[in-house]
Specification:
The complex is a heterodimer of chains A (about 110) and B (about 110). Chain A has no helices and 11 strands. Chain A has about 110 residues and is mainly beta. Chain B is an all-beta fold and about 110 residues long. Chain B has strands at about 5, 10-15, 20-25, 30-40, 40-50, 55, 65-70, 75-80, 85-95, 105, 110. The chains are: A mainly beta (about 110), B mainly beta (about 110).
Chain lengths: ~110, ~110
């Protein structure tokens, strides 16, 4: 079963706007990661945030983690057409358990 | 460094046949994981290999199997193919077992007719 659930399932915004997507998970984690997937291709790692971190930035990406609510958000600022992709969160529960991926958010940037 | 490579990229098989997919991880990576991705089920974990040993296994029937060689290259095999096995099969490598950042290959698109 999926550990992470992304919300919304799909999101369309105008180019230049900010995009926010959320991930909720069920059990305690070691770290949470976000990945991007362009249509029909492999996933690309975007950012990893550890359970003792609350916020992390990478370029136009900002990730927050609230372990008390078991949720994370990914903010993409000043969106571009090239940001059109599916975005997945993945949770690591530690102890050599597998990385578990969520259901994904399909982001469309309208030029 | 070369990325993760998967062969073949596209494959068409008929029901009942078997198929073998190959994955070459990034040099130095000892962990290889396999995933099945379909529109209906999303990204489903198949198995993970580390130093030639299967360390984690997803909830798939025994028709799905894999192995890892001493050079960390991995293969997965699906026997007695069913229509529902049509999917994008993704391989990912990482330095360590489980949890860490994973580097994905471009995938093998399998179509079963």
């Amino acid at each position: 079963s999926q550990q992470g659930e992304e919300d919304p399932q799909a999101l369309s915004i105008q180019e230049g706007e900010n995009a926010t997507m959320n991930c909720s998970y069920k059990t305690s984690i070691n770290n949470l990661q976000w990945y991007r997937q362009n249509s029909g291709r492999g996933l690309v790692h975007l950012i990893l945030i550890r359970s003792n971190e609350r916020e992390k930035h990478s370029g136009r990406l900002r990730v927050t983690l609230d372990t008390s609510k078991k949720s994370s958000s990914l903010l993409i600022t000043a969106s571009r057409a090239a940001d059109t992709a599916s975005y997945f969160c993945a949770t690591d529960r530690g102890g050599n358990e597998k990385l578990t991926f969520g259901t994904g958010t399909r982001l469309t940037i309208i030029p | 460094k070369a990325g993760v490579t998967q062969t073949p990229r596209y494959l068409i098989k008929t029901r009942g046949q078997q198929v073998t997919l190959s994955c070459s991880p990034i040099s130095g990576h000892r962990s290889v994981s396999w995933y099945q991705q379909t529109p209906g089920q999303g990204l489903q974990f198949l198995f993970e290999y580390f130093s030639e040993t299967q360390r984690n296994k997803g909830n798939f029937p025994g028709r799905f199997s894999g192995r890892q060689f001493s050079n960390s290259r991995s293969e997965m095999n699906v026997s007695t193919l069913e229509l529902g096995d049509s999917a994008l099969y993704l391989c990912a490598s990482s330095l360590e077992l489980a949890g860490g950042e994973q580097y994905f290959g471009p995938g093998t698109r399998l179509t079963v007719t």
